[in-house]
Amino acid sequence: EVQLVESGGGLVQAGGSLRLSCAASELTFDDYVIGWFRQVPGKEREGVSWLSSSDGDTYYAGSVRGRFTISSDNAKNTVYLQMNSLKPDDTAVYYCAASVYLPANYRSDNYYVRPKNYDYWGQGTQVTVSS
Fold it and tell me: What is the dihedral of CA 1, 51, 91, 68, to 10 degrees?
């Protein structure tokens, strides 16, 4: 059974940094895209970033581009989200998720931004950024 476990959330002041981890079990990274999403109460889940280990492709939402970096350690089956220059608007529950890898010509450009296209989800980790 595929399991995704997030860790690394917490409380940080604005301008600070956190590194989230997503540890995957029973899953081969080359076969999946790992995405990070975030959600605040009353709002839809937002795609933050994703990484394809198969072709090295990455994506960042405009709101985090230049501040967040996604990476993976395939030996540890773990994907990281390094979050720098955090802002209060980054406060949310962060989730990692896994979606079957599809080559670019088999999917739309925003395929991996949509939560409905992911098959497996972690339990989430809270990130709170104080002003």
Answer: 150
| Tens-place pLDDT, residues 69-120 | 999 998 999 999 999 999 999 999 999 999 999 988 888 889 999 999 999 9
Instruction: Round to whole Å and give the CA distance between 66 and 61.
Output: 10
CB 61 within 8 A of CB 44: no
What is the spatial distance between Cα 72 and Cα 81, in angstroms, rounded to a whole number? 9
**Do the Cβ atoms of 81 and 70 come closer than 8 Å?**
yes
How many Cα atoms occupy the beta-carbon half-sphere of 116 within 13 Å?
2
Q: What is the pLDDT of residues 30-79, one digit of tens each?
A: 899 999 999 999 999 999 999 998 888 999 999 999 999 999 998 999 99
